[in-house]
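Board work, copied verbatim: Ldh family oxidoreductase
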Amino acid sequence: MPEAGTIAAHTLRDFVARALQSRGVPEADAERVAALMVEADIYGYGTHGVFRLRQYLARLAGGGCNPAPVIRVVRQTEATALIDGDNGLGHLAMAAARDLAMEKARAAGIGWVGVRRGNHAGPLALYVRPQAEAGLLGMAGAVGSANHVPPYGGTDELLGTNPIAFSAPVAGADPFVFDMATTVAAMGKIKTLAQQGKLMPEGWMVGRDGKPLTDPNRRDEGFLLPIGGPKGYGLSVAIGMLAGVLNGAAFGANVVDFTADTTSETNTGQFVMALNPAAFGLGDGFATEAARVFAEFRASTPLPGHDPVRLPGDGKTAEAEARRESGLTLNPALRRDLNALAAECGLDAPFADA
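↓ predict structure ↓
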């Protein structure tokens, strides 16, 4: 018998797609977005998968997100392009950017595609893992969908979590996939803890008095902290210039909080890159050499009390395959929320045990 709260991936995809269609998203687009949202959960990025459905539906209902966008390339060269997402669901523009970047990398050695007028698109890993699986290197970055971080030493919230992700092919089961926010914790993790009634660890946020903030329900009373202090702040600004300023997208004070404001266009900026090892005289040799180096890392003697050394992406392929086969187990709070959304959308509840 499946574990309580477990749902088949195809059943969850169908539910998400029908929920999006109930808010005016065309069937083909709804199915593409639903597939990517569930794929996020399949690979373990639960804070950026179907957990975000309520936010997306709210923006569609409020008019802040265009349900039927026309995604188009507005400028391009042999190796670069700029995509206008027409204020649609962010997954559509980012998937188009990823695919175009890979196409250009195969032809020119590198492809760099920026996105403007996008929206929240789930975890960046969705837009770099395919490069690695195709023998390419990948990178993606985004301006966060709300400002929760002041410039280092300041108090005005002018930066978001501004994530960045990298990928590379590695001989073996798992490619290298590294996806991180430039804050100690992503806001999605904090919202998940709030939904589950749990506290945050110290060091994720501070209040305006500079003291640790651990109640996720009081997150609006403080700031997220950047990784590495001023180093994380500098990295966040660099990502903002590449994903925001370079693409004519929002960055700084003009970033719209996509959760609090469901009526305004966010003009979210993102970018996707693909790099072909063949342009450097390497083919499968890159993946082989990466596997050799990573084997050295894993063979490093662990510190006392530490687990063996791992690399970003280790075990993800097997874990994803297990979830595809056995289904996804969602926490009770999320199951209740999805059932509530089903009622709001006029759909059957996806969970009987929530």
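The chain has three domains: 1-62+315-354, 70-183+227-285, 184-225.
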